[in-house]
């Protein structure tokens, strides 16, 4: 019996049909660095959320909402937006640009460039999107078209909050599960932005959308043609690429498609590997990795917390208001979808992959570990808040109730995941020691050799 009390998975040799096997050592190091930054970002996100909730329910609420709703910008370009809208449309574009970079790097140069590595997190992400949407829809079938506009709210995982939860509970989650969680969240973001583009677009302007392709194409051409120069001389990127990115964002925004879609498209346009002129793939980090290293602190430390500050502030109205919000079928659907639908979708998809491919779990892991990570993926926040505003309308009763539900569900998912993962912490410590042991002193832990 393993420490979870469940029968151990069949002992399949690592690398031959094993699900959640360890990544390569360079990938392990890279993911560890990313998650450390996301832990700090998650803490800032939590602080911004708490401050927003306090202000929105205090005597200073009038000032808070006045600042959030204050409009500025150039109206002829459709850019006279409120401060909250600038945070959602502008700052979150930085977040999604980073998601585009990360996703492209994973599938071009990361461990997910091979089908056997990619199939599990991709299948889990798809299941983790479809199943919560189904749960929400079933709960709100009698609520009419307005209620059903929130079907996509519970589909995304917030990696910053999830990693912050891991830091708080002190879990020594194995590297394979950390990589899985990060990849799942990145694919989740891609699916979420696709949903936003196709289902939450209003008053589409095809000519403006076509016009956006021009600066985007020029951005992609220059990024590939002069990737070495942009990577070694960052000021060139600010001088050339950033203005093209801003123009692309403006045109996408004016076209009626949510401007954050521009962030993902620009991220996909950045080359991952060095060209031959730049020394080839073995000459060091490509432009995508260089930009990711420079932009992640801006995204995690400023863009996302500021968005959360202006989006999470909901006037709850005391215990009676909280009860009214949580009794709304929209809120019930979101809570059920995130706390139950998300882990069910991820777990079932992962299990289905093992059945159809005759694969088995890595020998160090058990299904209870997958349940813990799948439950943690129910911590939805940043993208869920964004979709709530798009679906229900910023500041509406439904939007406020949905945001209360998102916060409640994320807290419940975090607590449930903490219980499951903490119960396995002793086993995780043993794996952690194994992954750090380097008996031959070659600089690479023996587990990755």
From TrEMBL:
Keywords: Antiport, Cell membrane, Ion transport, Membrane, Sodium, Sodium transport, Transmembrane, Transmembrane helix, Transport
Family listed: Belongs to the NhaA Na(+)/H(+) (TC 2.A.33) antiporter family.
Gene: nhaA
Catalytic activity: Na(+)(in) + 2 H(+)(out) = Na(+)(out) + 2 H(+)(in)
Signal peptide: none
Chief place of localization: membrane
Name of the protein: Na(+)/H(+) antiporter NhaA
Ranges that cross the membrane: 40-65, 77-98, 118-139, 151-169, 176-200, 206-223, 235-251, 257-273, 302-324, 330-353, 365-387, 402-421
Job description of the protein: Na(+)/H(+) antiporter that extrudes sodium in exchange for external protons.
Top-level taxon of the source organism: Bacteria
Localization in the cell: Cell inner membrane; Cell membrane
Native organism: Cryobacterium algoricola
HAMAP family registered for this protein in UniProt: NhaA
Pfam families from the UniProt entry: Na_H_antiport_1
Membrane topology, as annotated: Multi-pass membrane protein
